[in-house]
Write a structure and sequence with these properties.
- The protein is mainly α and 385 residues long.
- It has 2 domains: 177 residues, MFS general substrate transporter like domains (Growth Hormone, Chain: A, Up-down Bundle); 187 residues, MFS general substrate transporter like domains (Growth Hormone, Chain: A), CATH 1.20.1250.
- The protein is 82% helix and 0% strand.
- It contains 16 helices and no strands.
- The longest helix is centred in the N-terminal third of the chain and has 32 residues.
Length: 385
């Protein structure tokens, strides 16, 4: 028999690793651009390999964990991520570098999906969303590690050395995965392909995945477009503009700590509606303010409000499809990451066709669509399907 708390700790460690994987490319991209004398096109081509890997990892992890269990996937996906990080620090060949970035994304995508599914599986219905919120905090911790280390240590050590030691630390943590006993695979005798395919026809899964399509898209838009928007519409100094993004991450991380308690006391539809309202206030501040304090407050509120989306949706999916939770969550994350890519592309088109000033308006429209999804499906959101 496995210990649920020890397994849950393993899922939090794995999610922190995903945070490292997801943020590492953006953190070292300026150094890579300088090292390889890349222009904008060259730098962009490198970045595209990360989301491709994450998307693929999010798609394949589900059938693997349902058939073979969590332990082997957590170990393998961590090794793949470490291989990519170490390669990023050791290789001087651009072709190999692209492969390393893809491996970081692939391992990270599998870690993201498997840790969400694992945390869901070892949680009860009454505390599933709460535990998924704490899991989100682990992501925030991991996402802050690399920028923090680079900021503190870059005067004395190169980014290569910092990445190498990060990989070694992750390798040491694999010993915990090896030592802990995990839940048994759901399908030891073969994976039920027909049952998995039938998930694509499930209204509950599709509605929640559609909600995550916009959720992931908005989170990606803030990470990728906020600095460009502020640079074009405010007089805030460039160094301070980059700093504003930390308030978005901080808001999301602190909110998930707070939500871990709130989910036990308040209905999920009320949590979601309140959170989205807070995000709307933050978007309004972002749209109407040009000063650093108000902009940072707006981004903090946006991050705070967006924090509830994934814990609620993934928790509901895990509760509704317990027998195939890995595959169901994998489908949802694949659709969500597709939303990230599509909506970022759409924002690029909007900024060229209209103006970057349209950024808050586009965000408000996406948030309005989420409101419609939530309030037209109250039974699903309140877990009464």
């Amino acid at each position: 028999m496995y210990n649920k708390n020890l397994v849950y700790i393993a899922s939090c460690i794995g999610m922190a690793f995903f945070g490292i994987a997801f943020i590492v490319m953006g953190s070292v991209l300026p150094s890579l651009t300088e090292k390889y004398s890349l222009d904008t096109v060259g730098a962009s081509s490198l970045v595209t390999f990360l989301p491709v890997g994450v998307l693929l990892g999010s798609l394949i992890f589900g059938p693997v964990v349902d058939r073979f269990g969590y332990k082997i996937l957590l170990i393998v996906s961590t090794f793949i991520t470490i291989l990519g990080i170490e390669g990023l620090s050791l290789s001087d060949d651009l072709s190999i570098l692209r492969g390393c970035i893809f491996f970081i994304g692939l391992g990270g995508g599998m870690l993201n999906g498997s840790t969400n599914a694992l945390a869901s599986d070892v949680s009860d219905d009454h505390n599933r969303s709460s535990r998924l919120s704490i899991l989100g905090v682990s992501y925030g911790v991991g996402a802050l590690i690399i920028p923090f280390l680079l900021g503190v240590l870059s005067k004395d050590y190169s980014y290569e050395i910092i990445l190498q030691w990060t990989g070694i630390f992750m390798l040491l943590c694999v010993a915990y995965f090896v030592a802990v006993r995990f839940p048994e695979p759901k399908f030891k005798q073969g994976f039920p392909v027909k049952q998995a395919a039938s998930l694509l026809k499930q209204p509950v899964l599709l509605i929640l995945s559609f909600f995550l399509f916009f959720q992931s898209g908005m989170e990606g838009l803030f990470n990728n477009w906020t600095t460009s928007y502020l640079k074009a519409t405010t007089s805030i100094e460039e160094g301070d503009i980059v700093l504003t993004l930390t308030f978005f991450v901080l808001g999301m991380t602190l909110a998930r700590l707070f939500l871990s308690y709130v989910f036990k006391k308040v209905k999920q539809i009320h949590v979601l509606s309140g959170a989205m309202t807070i995000s709307l206030v933050g978007i309004a501040l972002l749209n109407w303010s040009t000063t650093f304090p108000v902009v940072t407050l707006g981004l903090f509120l946006i991050g705070f409000g967006l924090s509830a989306g994934f814990p609620v949706a993934i928790g509901l999916i895990g509760s509704a499809y317990k027998e195939t939770s890995g595959t169901a969550i994998g489908i949802a994350l694949f659709i969500a990451l597709g939303g990230n890519s599509i909506l970022n592309y759409a924002m690029g088109y909007i900024s060229r066709t209209f103006d970057i000033n349209s950024f808050p308006v586009f965000l408000a429209i996406l948030l309005a669509i989420q409101f419609i999804i939530v309030f037209t499906n109250p039974k699903i959101i309140n877990n009464k399907n």
